[in-house]
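Q&A FORM
Asked by: J.P.
Topic: structure of UDP-N-acetylenolpyruvoylglucosamine reductase

PROVIDED:
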Amino acid sequence: MKRYKNYSLLRHNTFGIDSLCDEFVVFESIDDAISLAIEQRISVEHKCKFLLLGGGSNLLLTHDFKGKVITPDKRFDVEESFVHDDAHAIYLRCWAGTCFDDVVAYAASHGYCGMENLSLIPGECGASAVQNIGAYGVEIKDILYNIETVDLSTGKVVSIRPDDCQYGYRQSRFKHEWKDRFIITHVTYKLSTKFMPCLDYGNLQKVLNERQISKNELTPQILRNIIIDIRRSKLPDPAVLGNAGSFFMNPMVDKNKLDDLIKKFPDIKYFEVDVATLGAEAVAMTNHTGSKVYKIPAGWMIDHCGWKGKRVGNVGVYDKQALVLVNYGGASGQDIVNLMRAIQKDVFDTFGISIIPEVNIK
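REPLIED BY: S.T.
REPLY: Here is the structure written out as tokens.
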């Protein structure tokens, strides 16, 4: 276990915000996590704050953190296992601090299928289970098999199955009732050696047609390369331009609200969603009245309001993707928050819809 005092978090958040924490602790094993749980039970009695941090790709820091930041060691640590009663199954048990995209690259290169649509999503394996990350028609809940944790309230090692996590659109119990309760040490993904590509989302099929790649020629590696190309064409590299990827969640509305919007905005974009596929938190946000709800792309609304490509001081909205807020250099977390609020107000005034940040604001 490694400890640092009065530590800068600049290299630990992709927005590039230079905030300090009182103490920065890196755990390197399950035993380290258990030791931290024991420490934390004592700290709670003294009302000491703590923050569980992954790669910082879904985090906006607005001030110095007066407390302890806990994060897993950054290393590639993946164990393979097969289950003989399922001829196509392959399980990858990954250390929480392993870069998620490194695992996707590893899987694709070995012919393990199911993760390729999640290529180039920033962050670490531990955080993937918290956020229920998703892209191009696939969410982490679709391939998640097991989550190994240490319960901070008891110091005990606890394995959690995905069915108990109440996964929904960018939601899980880890973000709500389980917030700050568990240190995740390992995540196991269930993949397959049988390739069944998901091509129904976005412009994947269009790109395949343009590149004259038939479904029979497609492999996990080819599909991964295509998704990387698409994402790089739309999203900025955090090493060049500070950002946290998609800043806002896409809101969902019921049929009555959708009909009203179509009357006012005939060209509005929307996608039908089955309520049964949503988590409880996402359902609560829709105020739905039926079995179907409709997802409205927040990026489309932000663009409609004239924000795409607009800069305000050291912050702005990315010119290729209106969902992405960027730090042009030297911005504070509060600068990003001010921009967020201005965008939220314009969207609400125009559409009567509240857009909620996907990013964790501290």
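FOLLOW-UP: The first strand starts at residue 2 and ends at 8.
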